Predict the 3D structure of the following.
Amino acid sequence: MSELQIVDLHVNVNDREILKGVNLTVRQGEVHALMGPNGTGKSTLAYTLMGHPNYEVTQGEVWFKGQNILELEADQRAHLGLFLAFQYPVAIPGVSVANFLRAAINARRKIENPEDKGIPIPEFRKQLKKVMDSLRMDHTFASRYLNDGFSGGEKKRAEVLQMAMLRPEIAIMDETDSGLDIDALRIVAEGVNTLRGPDLGVLVITHYQRILNYIKPDFVHIMLDGRIVESGGADLALHLEEHGYDWLKNKAEVMVR
Ligand SMILES: Nc1ncnc2c1ncn2[C@@H]1O[C@H](COP(=O)(O)OP(=O)(O)OP(=O)(O)O)[C@@H](O)[C@H]1O
Ligand SMILES: [Mg+2]
């Protein structure tokens, strides 16, 4: 059973400390939600886990499959089975969705078996169609350039498509719900729920209880000022919805002292 274990993680951005000691473990089979006010470091955590060069780790470790992944390049982390759905996915003009997915799948297969010749194209096409149908995506998407001119909702759906095709062991979804209309939200959530199971661990970063009605988390964590100050079950998100974050601020101050 794989787990992603974040230990005392401190991260600077432009010489300012943003993450101030994050501890969090996400195991395969568990769904965790990470919530917290704007600018508290949630996306910083996601980018750091994926190895974005702007995020400088000054202290701490992140363990996955027996390795401190902070020592690995971003693509090596992905090949190991970590997946990040971005808050603002970038467009890759010139690379179609299908080609991008096939290259990514083949890169992972090669890690598992250096002799692998890549996924046979008919098998790939069949899988892609099946997943696109389940996400109610038009098949023409497969030949469009990745995220190029995609609407906000289409980008989010494309992220879930990638997740479904790549079958990561741990997925981090940064605000995959923002900008989705109610139907798209349901489709994306259903997509995640279909993938949910003993082989997948998910960290859902969100501001809203709404998506958690569809993707019921096993654990909810609240980040304030670069630290996780409270953890609980699904009811913690409901409590937040009702009471906001103020009741936690004292707690955060105590932790600083
Ligand atoms: N590349 C960067 N350059 C400068 N500051 C940055 C950079 N990335 C993050 N920060 C700063 O780090 C802090 C945390 O940002 P982060 O995006 O992690 O917050 P967040 O919790 O994801 O917020 P939101 O809920 O609004 O998405 C913010 O003050 C932000 O301005
Ligand atoms: Mg963010």
